[in-house]
Amino acid sequence: MVGFSSISQHDEPLALRLALEYQQCLRARLPAAHGREVKTMGDGILVEFDSALEATQCAIELQQELMARNRDGRAPGLQVRVGIHVGDVLHRENDVFGDTVNIAARIEPLAEAAGVAISGAVFDQVGAKIPFGCTRLEHAFLKNIDTPMAVYSLDLPWHAPPAARVTPFTDRVRESELLGRAVTEAARGKGSIVAISGESGIGKTRLAEEAILQAERRGFRVVRARGFEDVVSGSYAHWAAIVGALLRDAPSPLLYKLCDRCAREVLTLMPELGDRLGPIPAAPPLPPGPARLQLFGGVARFLQNAAREGPLVLLLDDLQWADAGSLQLLEHVAPELNGLPVLVLATYRDVELDPAGPIRRSLLDLRLHGYLREVALARFDGEKTQLLLDAVLGTPALGKELTGVLLDKTGGNPLFVEEVVRSLVEEGHLTRTDAGWQRAPDLQVEMPSTVREVVHRRVARLGREAESVLAAAAVLGTEFDFLTLQAVSGVEAEQLLPLVESALRARLLHEREVAPGRPAYRLGDEHIREVLYSSLSLARRQQYHRRAGETLERVLGNRATDRSSEIAQHFRLGDRPANAAEFFFRAGVRARRIFALDEAVAAYHDAAASLDEALARAEDAKPLRELEVRLFEGLGDVEYDTGKPEEAAVSYRRAVSAADPADHLARARNLRNLEWTFQIRNDYPAALRQLDLAEHELAEVAAEPKPDAWWSLWLQIQAARFQVYYWLSDTARREEVIARVRPVLERRAGPADLALLYGLLAGHGFRRDHTITDETLGHYRTSWGYEEEARIAEGRPPIEGAGEFTRGFAAYWHGDFAEARPHLAKGLEYAKRRHHAEAISRAITYSMLLARRTRDVEETERLIPATEAAAEQARLPEYRAMALANRAWVSWRRGDVVGVDPPGERALEIWRGLPERYMVDWLALWPMIAAAHSRGQLERAVDLARGLLQPTQEPLPARLRTLVDAAVQASTHGDVATASSSIGRAVDVAQEEGYL
Prior knowledge:
Radius of gyration: 37 Å
Shape: elongated
Mean pLDDT: 86
Strand content: 5-15%
Helix content: 55-70%
Oligomer: single chain
Number of helices: 44
Strand order of the largest sheet: 10-11-12-9-13
């Protein structure tokens, strides 16, 4: 009897009355069916029959009578399950024994509520002799029965029709043709991305599955990944699922082949493969941009390796919930698909996209580059709704009247149509007879305001015990295993298994084998999860979340960090803020380690919110302070990396205030971090104050000799001082810093130390001379050599594009324009691939300057708007001024004398408003001098020329400086003719030298 235990808990007399009623109904039918009652077993009865056909007919008649009693109110809620098997039995003392009895007992829980399940042996005897069809069950697990066995469910009229158990494919002809062409192209090695968009329930995944069916017929392997709403699944979750699906069951030779030249990146996404792949050198620490590109490149290589084994379809389902890292990785691999037999199918809900979310940005980028084809699905009209209704019922439907009502109630959403029809069938309002489908005379189609109510009805039919288990599953959210579900629901395994199986049959749960003998489960769709989750009381919800967090932490052990986001969410929703803060922090660390910076920021902010709540509750906050320091230091780092210095400053200050007063290294480290945020905002006095405070903290460390961490931090502080004095053009202070650190660096004498020393010498020479001399270029090259030596010693791989801008920058200032060009071009390309605003701004600005120095007017003009935009985004006003100065130059070169002065004056105004004296006034001054000279404004031209001779400016070539100096001197002494002649010749020479 379905739900007997649950009914007994609430109304034991009712449960006993219902059990007695169905037993009496069965006993009344046994004589005519030649059946013998063997024994009762609680709320069940064991019956023996002379034939399988008579047993089946008796079971059908019993269910028909019980359904009639349900409908007329004589036995509301009375439902039973029947299981039937055929074979030899052993009789002893009025009882029966043997495998046949055991198998029948195991088949019974597989029947639907008010249903009949039969073994394959029974089906062979009765399948053609009963008036109902049979559906073979996909999930027929017979406990303690070793021999595989087929089990069938009778398709009784009050159950959902077989056709409704799989979403029918209905009239998407044009869309199918487009996908078919994409499959054909991919089979020929021209892969692509096709995105299928539309609202929830519109049929996106169903259309994708139809294309997948075509692809499978052509030999494609299909890999699926799915996103989930309000579930933190970790960075690069879609791609981790794809990599895992391709590798988990791969034999070792194939595993090594697929991971060729990308094993480290594969392990970043799938750490659990470490045991199979063997020891792999740890990835060296790299800046976020290069490391992210290295990861992306490794995944692209993995995809190429996999495609060599055969064509692939990658289904990225519910992309609207993908993490930013997964979307950026999709953008990265998109250009590679054109030469691979790989078709990427992506589905997303277009009406649920966050306007500021990463998916809109990614889709736009893919569209602009021509990597994306889109299929937008609309709701069904009346004709298509009629076709869907026919497909769901498996036969021409009941006429246009019902179709019209469905269309009005559902708006043509295919999912809603299906769910309403399913509900009508299950409730007996639509019944199947020999003559076809019949509707109840008083049929009222009530479409819920949302699909929530439909799901409520479907779940409730499984009984309260199953509903409680499914609610626990809703708390778990994404994919989960049987043991975790058992721990969270609190239901014993013996009771849980049939409940899970009934949910599988109802398609409220789905199952897949994640490893041989290891099934995993997930809820059928997000609507189901939402309905079940909202049905829980707050207290129950918190209890389930606490259990989930504790279970995952215990079961995963050292691997808990890999699912730290998920565990953190459970602890937060389970009202365990201290635990939530720790796991959100771990999630942030992990995201930053794999350079998913957006996810890291979000995780750190979640950790901070949970930590604040925990601190407010704690009687003793001291145990939480260490986490507070680590958390806000990490948050400050990632905020600084993502270009948010103001936010980073707030985080570093909190890390300083949270640190134990005796922990001088932690306080000094975060004061030094705080200095970064002032330096990037050009607040150099504040930056120096932070460095003074940091050194004061270091002075409080009494240990002798000083630990290596102390010296490393001390050197960082000195290098930061040098950088401040670099921007302030303070030559004497830079020399003091070099004199202070040189003995330390030479004594340590590691390649990284010597790279730092020669880097300081190079920067000092450049800022002192306002150009790069042969000596300074030598220092740069020595520093690069030691950097390469350090990279090799530390086992770090070379990163394509790393250092290219610096080499181009040095060549430019040394006057080696031909050498600078390829380095700057590669540096700009690399910066764009990293999406690093500051690096893009620097690279594109110097590319613009190079174009001007080589008198390429068109290229300079083309780069000016991009330079201005990049400088604005990176908050580098000095580079925006360079773009304005070049606007003045382009106007001069175009003969637009009037257009020279406004942008030139604005550029000079910006440079002169900076805390440091910028050294490229000539960019604006030369076109303004030439324009003034052409207008006969000698006094203005000479006055502007004086700015070229300032000691803070880039030195002019000797011939040009002589002419400018002669013009200034002549003007000072009233020699107008000489001043005019000298200015005119200077303008001519400036054009020859590339200044004009």
